[in-house]
Structure formats: C-alpha cells, structure tokens
Design a protein that fits this description.
Length: 253
C-alpha cells in the first residue's frame, strides 16, 4: 500500500513538466489525482492513461487560470470528479504548480505581460487556496511551487520572480492560518528543471543550465515530484511555512 493510499490530490498544471511528474508520483503512492490543465487535453489524457496503466487513479480537469471564472471552473470539474469516484468532495492534497514564465528584459516588460504573470502565478493560487478551504480535510497539505529565482538574481525574470516571491508569502501566512487544522503549507523552489520544452533539446543550452547546479545537471520533474510527495505524506507533518530549496545546489553560488 502506498503512503498516500485513500488520499485525494489536485495538481494544477499537471499535463506537462513538473506537474506531470508530480501527478504521476502522487498517484504511484496511491492518491486519486485530479490532473489539471489549461488547453492541452491530449497531454492531460496521456498523464491520466499513464497513471491508470500503472494501476493508479486519476481524472482530467480543465480550467484556464487567469481568465474570468477560472477558480469556479476548476472546482466544478474537481468536485464532480471526486464525487463520482469517492462519493465526497474532500481534498487531502493541493499542489499549486501551474505557472507561466517571463523571460523578458526588465526594460521591456509591458503592463499586460506583468498582469498576466500575476493573474496566473499569484491571483489564481490565492483564490484556489481560498476556495479549497472548504474541501481540504484537517491534516491536509498545500504545496506551492515557487522558484529558486526568489533567491538567485536573474534580471530577465524580475517580474516572474516577483510573482514567486508572492507565492512564498502565500505559503507563510496561510501556514499560520491553517496550523490549528493540522494543514501544512510549504513552498518548493525548483532550479532549472527539464519540462520537456524545446530548450532542453539544445545540448549547448543544457550544458550551460546544468553548470548552475553543483551536480552539473538540470533537474528532472521527478526530482521535484519526490520533494512534493515527501511534504504531502505523513513524513512531512512537522514542516510548515517553509521554503524547500529543490535546486540541486544552485543557490550555493
Ligand atoms: P510547463 O510549462 O512545462 O507546464 C505548465 C503547466 O501549467 C501545463 O500543465 C499547462 O497546461 C499549465 N498551465 C500553464 N498556464 C496555465 C493557465 N493559464 N491555466 C491553467 N493551466 C496552465 O511548466 P514547468 O513544469 O516548467 O513549471 C511548473 C511550475 O514550476 C511553474 O509554476 C513554474 O513557474 C515552476 N518552475 C519551473 C522551473 C523550470 O525550470 N521548469 C524552475 C522553477 C520553477 P497546458 O498543458 O494545458 O498548457
């Protein structure tokens, strides 16, 4: 029996990348996982099929975060999926993973780009947590995917890094707020992690990115997923309000 047997989990943005690896990992531990995505339904279905092939349980949920009615759509699909499979809408584990990157020089960031980053990376997780409070069971888990860029300067990502700084604030304040219910709230900060994007097909780019880690490789989704699974399980019960550096030593300088 897995460590998360009988638990339910929502992983936002789990059709690809770190979220995909996290959904597969939580399901492998026995959790029923809601695989959330924005538009790539084929990718989300592939994640569900991968989980089911290995004997796990999952279902897809679509919601475009950062658009009108996003949190409503997300919880409509989530609650329907949970109810059908468990008879209740209880949620044990919430992983706020979906996010958009910047990659724009600071002088060129437009107000629209800034608003989009905040809408998806900050506003959506805030209102997802707020909405999830009635579903989350006492003793539940919230894991927010932050970034090493909250502690490692890269001017090309200043606006994006600001959004992840806000995510860390969400973690800290909610950790205190939810402690009386035994719910832990933590941030996990990946370094550069292979999300299957085209950049990771370029050997020279990968070599440069790998050199930032003391292990001289880029992270894999599973490196982050294992940290999330630890926090999501019973072993993580005494950690709350923390930022877990999952950057392969990138922050050591
Ligand atoms: P990917 O770009 O590979 O995947 C993004 C996921 O989020 C997809 O499932 C996508 O769905 C979903 N998504 C994107 N935008 C929206 C939206 N507006 N509404 C709903 N879903 C959305 O992401 P990564 O795996 O690279 O990153 C995951 C998290 O980790 C992010 O928060 C990112 O900031 C953070 N991070 C990543 C690092 C890295 O090097 N990869 C480093 C540090 C932090 P769909 O498939 O439908 O588009």
């Amino acid at each position: 029996m897995g460590k998360l047997s009988g638990k339910t989990a929502l992983v936002t943005g789990s059709s690809r990348g770190i979220g995909r690896a996290t959904a597969i990992r939580l399901a492998a531990e026995g959790a029923l996982v809601a695989v959330h995505y924005a538009s790539n339904s084929e990718a989300a279905e592939e994640v569900v099929a991968t989980i089911e092939k290995d004997g796990g349980r999952a279902f897809p949920v679509r919601a475009e975060l950062g658009s009108q009615g996003d949190v409503h759509d997300l919880f409509f699909g989530l609650e329907q999926g949970l109810k059908e499979r468990t008879g209740s809408t209880d949620l044990d584990i919430l992983v706020n993973n979906a996010g958009v990157m910047g990659g724009v020089p600071p002088e060129e960031v437009t107000p629209d780009q800034f608003d989009r980053l905040y809408a998806v990376n900050v506003k959506a997780p805030f209102f997802i947590v707020q909405r999830a409070l009635s579903n989350l069971v006492d003793g539940g888990r919230i894991v927010n995917i932050s970034s090493g860029l909250t502690r490692f300067a890269n001017p090309q990502e200043v606006a994006y890094a600001m959004t992840k700084g806000a995510v860390d604030q969400l973690t800290m304040h909610y950790a205190k707020h939810l402690g009386s219910r035994g719910i832990t709230v933590n941030s996990v900060g990946p370094g550069i992690t292979n999300n299957g994007g085209p950049l990771f097909d370029n050997p020279e780019a990968v070599r440069q990115m790998a050199s930032l880690s003391v292990f001289n490789r880029v992270g894999e989704g599973s490196d982050i997923a294992d940290v999330v699974a630890f926090l999501a399980g019973e072993d993580g019960r005494w950690i709350t309000g923390s930022y877990l550096d999952a950057s392969g030593g990138t922050l050591l300088g």
